Amino acid sequence: MSFGDREDELWEAMKPSFKPRLVSDPNIKYAKHLVNQTGPFATRGALTSLGRTDVRATLARVVRRAPEVLVKVTGRKKGAKHLAAHLDYIGRHGDIPLETRDGEQLATKEDAQRIADEWSDSLYWRQGTSVSAVAMVFSMPAGTDPETVKQAVRETAERMIGDNHDYLMALHTDTPRPHVHLTVQAEGLNRKRFDPRREDLFRFREAFAEALRSRGVEAEATPRYSRGQGRAGTSMALTQLRSRIRSGASRQPTETDLRQAREAMQIALGNAEQPAFVSKTRARWQDTRRRYEAAADRLDRSADHEDRKLAGDVRTFLQERANIETVPDRMLRDAEARVIAARQPARTDPSPEPGVPRGTPPPPARRR
C-alpha cells in the first residue's frame, strides 16, 4: 500500500533531516556536499536502497519495537603509539584476532604495531599530531548472533568506506551485547580524510540495519524522538561513570550530575524553568504522534488485513507513549520528591536507590 501524498510527512517523523551549518563550518566543502547531495552524499550504487523505498515497513518496525542498531565514534587515535595501544586493547592483548579489509587475520602484537606504523608514517609531513585512525563501534542487543553482526559490519564498511581507506575489525562477545570495533585509517589513498559527522553516522546506522535485515535479523535505524524516547543528552563516558556509581564502584557524583541536580532543585522550588529543549522535545513528539495517528487512520481504511493490523499496532504504540521524558524530567521528578520529603520531617527522605549519591539521575524507564 502507499500513503500517497502523506508519505513524505510520515517519513520525516521517522528519519532525521540534517541542516548543514554553512556559516563558520571549518569544512565548507563538506557542507556544500550536504546541500547539493554530491561527494559523500551523492546517491550511488547499492546505497540507493537506503532511500524512502518502504515507509510502511519502516513504520511497522518502529511500532513493533525492532532492535535499534548502535553506531558510535569512540575516539580518534593520534600517532603510532596511541593507535597501537588501541589495537592492543580491541585485540584483547592478542586473544582476539584483528581482521583486515581483505579478511586477513592479525593475531600478534607485532602485526598490530606494523599497521599502526604504516597508518601513521604517511602523516609525518603534517604540523602537529594528526589523527592516524578513527575508532568506531557497531553494536546490537543481547541475543543477536555475533557472527551475523560481524558480517553485517563488514558489508557496511565495504559499502560506506570502500577501498579508499584501510580498516581493521574485531568482534567482542565478552558483554551481553555483541559488538564490533571498526578502526579506519584516517588518511585515504586519494589523500581525503575519514572524518565522520553526525550525518555520516546516521548513514552508517541505516546501512548496518539494512545489512542485518538482509541476513534475517530485524533491525532499524531511527532517531530517539521517532520512538517516543526523550533526548539522551549524555556522552558514553558520562553513561559509564553513572553505571560505576550505581554498581558501587564509585561514590563520587559527576560534576554534570551535580549541576543538573542543582538546576532541577531550583525548578522544583519555583525559582527557575525547565530548559528550552525540553518543551521543544515534547512539541516534536506531539507532532510525531499526530503523523502516526493519521497513518493509522489511513491504514484502517485499507482493504488489506495486514494494514489494519498495523494500524492497531500503531495505536498501541502511541497509548504506551502518552508522554515523552527527558533527563531533566527525571531529575525534576527526583527533586520534587526531595522537596516534598523536606516539608514532611516525619517521613524518611526518599532515595530512588539506597547507597547512590544524591545528584545521580534515576535511570530511564525501559519500555517493552
Automatic annotation (TrEMBL):
Pfam families: Relaxase (PF03432). Residues 351-368 have a biased composition (Pro residues). Residues 110-216 form the MobA/VirD2-like nuclease domain. It comes from the Bacteria. It comes from Sphingobium xenophagum. Keywords: Plasmid. InterPro entries: Endonuclease_MobA/VirD2. This is Relaxase. Residues 338-368 are annotated as: Disordered.
